[in-house]
């Protein structure tokens, strides 16, 4: 018993040191600022070369990486949701899954999941220090270490190979062409979610530029699935698919699927999520059918086959519409059009941070919210135009708007690391409050916001519950969840 206590203590201390060491590497926000100042094609090529070099130093060759069976997903909106749906469908079919996503909400271990669960503290800690030491020992100069996201990408590849997952569902970080994940050479299939303007300082100022960057993950002799896109973006995707000898297919409408004994329709009512679900169905089905030999094209193109049976080495390959439906309906992806019922009101959590996603968020909130005082909790990163994001939110007629940095305000290592840029965020919050005008308040952290809501707003009854919309940043969503649902159970005791 004493030995187990010592092991837990050592693991906890080592885990905390690992998190601090990880944050000492260049953060994603720092990378974006530097990239905006010094954006050149030569430096972009160096990013991928560096990733391959660091991967090799950590003990993995690109040939070893080729043994991973990968589904690779890029896009502006809905990447995470699409990957989560895909992972859930494949796990429901009995496959061992690995899932890499970003950003995390409450703790960094969420980014690397095995069979739907974030890796444990011990698993993270052991592998982190093993790789960190290998890279540190091989440094050629003082700052010769991968950035935060690049390090996590390398860690993810190690874990997925070690765990021998059947399939790795990998979400692109930023862009596609020069993203760290794009050292993958032979994915089974590729997904492109909805494309809009975002990260323009890094990816380009037009939708065509964005599409060019996202289609950078297209690979020869691979199938790429895309949601319907605006004409300019679709033209680029089609051209790039031809150039890269990649088959491009546009997904069908969610309404076209024929369900059997189980249907996910009641759980997925929003049109945006239905589109993401359709993309997930196509990718998951393509991956499963790739396990079979000589699958007829007519079968591959069908979306209405309830059960498709093929054989590979005497193993039955089955695609079941019932399992697809259960996978979609049971998928849990916090912080994206999520509703949590609490004692102080109903929380509507959506990390929308572009004009298009804010508009979708408003439509969802209008459809799902009920009678009661409407409250807004908002923040966004420093590089985004708050005026354009806040203007459409006015149509919801909030009783009060809270502007707060992306920090929970509770004692935890992850919140401590997230609080490093709080002064800069506070300035942005003051600006957002001035833009909003009356009935707005700036507070230091999410804990203060929730205390203010509890103190000042009394609910008459269940028919008039407070309707609390949290949006503008997934990091803000994470700060709220760190208090009301820290284990991401999709329920709250708050």
From TrEMBL:
UniProt keyword terms in alphabetical order = ATP-binding, Cytoplasm, Ligase, Magnesium, Membrane, Metal-binding, Mitochondrion, Mitochondrion inner membrane, Nucleotide-binding, One-carbon metabolism
Is the Nucleotidyltransferase keyword given for this protein? no
Q: Which GO terms describe its molecular function?
A: ATP binding; metal ion binding; tetrahydrofolylpolyglutamate synthase activity
- Main site of residence? cytoplasm
So what does this one do?
A: Catalyzes conversion of folates to polyglutamate derivatives allowing concentration of folate compounds in the cell and the intracellular retention of these cofactors, which are important substrates for most of the folate-dependent enzymes that are involved in one-carbon transfer reactions involved in purine, pyrimidine and amino acid synthesis.
Instruction: State the family named in the UniProt similarity comment for this chain.
Output: Belongs to the folylpolyglutamate synthase family.
The name under which this protein is listed is: Folylpolyglutamate synthase
């Amino acid at each position: 018993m004493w030995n187990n206590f010592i092991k837990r203590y050592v693991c906890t201390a080592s885990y905390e040191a690992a998190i601090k060491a990880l944050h000492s590497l260049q953060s994603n926000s720092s990378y974006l600022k530097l990239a905006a100042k010094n954006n050149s094609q030569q430096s972009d090529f160096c990013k991928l070369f560096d990733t391959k070099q660091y991967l090799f130093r950590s003990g993995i060759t690109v040939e070893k990486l080729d043994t991973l069976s990968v589904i690779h997903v890029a896009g502006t909106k809905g990447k995470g949701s699409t990957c989560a749906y895909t992972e859930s469908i494949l796990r429901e079919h009995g496959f061992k899954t690995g899932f890499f996503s970003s950003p995390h909400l409450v703790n960094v271990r969420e980014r690397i999941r095995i069979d739907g669960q974030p890796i444990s503290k011990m698993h993270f800690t052991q592998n982190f220090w093993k790789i960190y030491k290998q890279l540190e020992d091989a440094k050629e100069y003082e700052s010769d270490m991968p950035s935060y996201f690049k390090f996590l990408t390398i860690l993810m590849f190690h874990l997925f190979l070690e765990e021998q997952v059947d399939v790795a569902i990998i979400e692109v970080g930023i862009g596609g062409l020069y993203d760290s994940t794009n050292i993958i050479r032979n994915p089974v299939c590729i997904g492109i979610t909805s494309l809009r303007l975002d990260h323009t300082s890094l990816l380009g100022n037009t939708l065509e530029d964005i599409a060019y960057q996202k289609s950078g993950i297209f690979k020869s002799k691979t199938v790429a699935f895309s949601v319907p896109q605006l004409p300019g973006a679709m033209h680029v995707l089609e051209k790039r698919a031809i150039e890269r000898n990649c088959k491009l297919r546009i997904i069908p409408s969610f309404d076209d699927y024929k369900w059997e004994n189980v249907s996910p329709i009641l759980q997925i009512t929003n049109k945006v999520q239905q589109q993401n679900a359709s993309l997930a169905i196509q990718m998951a089905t393509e991956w499963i059918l790739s396990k079979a030999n000589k699958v007829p094209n007519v079968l591959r193109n069908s979306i209405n086959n309830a059960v498709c049976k093929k054989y590979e080495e005497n193993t039955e390959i089955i695609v079941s519409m019932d399992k697809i439906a259960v996978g979609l309906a049971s998928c849990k992806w916090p912080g994206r059009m999520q509703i949590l019922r609490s004692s102080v009101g109903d929380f509507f959590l959506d990390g929308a941070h572009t004009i298009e996603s804010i508009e979708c968020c408003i439509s969802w909130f209008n459809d799902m919210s009920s009678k009661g005082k409407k409250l807004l909790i908002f923040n966004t990163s420093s590089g985004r135009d708050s005026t354009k994001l806040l203007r459409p939110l006015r149509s919801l007629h909030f009783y009060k708007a809270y502007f707060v940095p992306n920090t929970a305000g509770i004692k935890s290592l992850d919140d401590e690391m997230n609080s490093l840029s709080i002064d800069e965020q506070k300035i942005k919050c003051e600006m957002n409050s001035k833009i909003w005008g009356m009935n707005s308040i700036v507070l230091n952290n999410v804990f203060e916001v929730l205390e203010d809501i509890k103190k000042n707003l009394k609910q008459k009854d269940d028919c008039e519950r407070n309707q609390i919309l949290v949006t503008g940043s997934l990091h803000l969503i994470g700060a709220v969840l760190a208090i009301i649902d820290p284990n991401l159970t999709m329920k709250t005791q708050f």
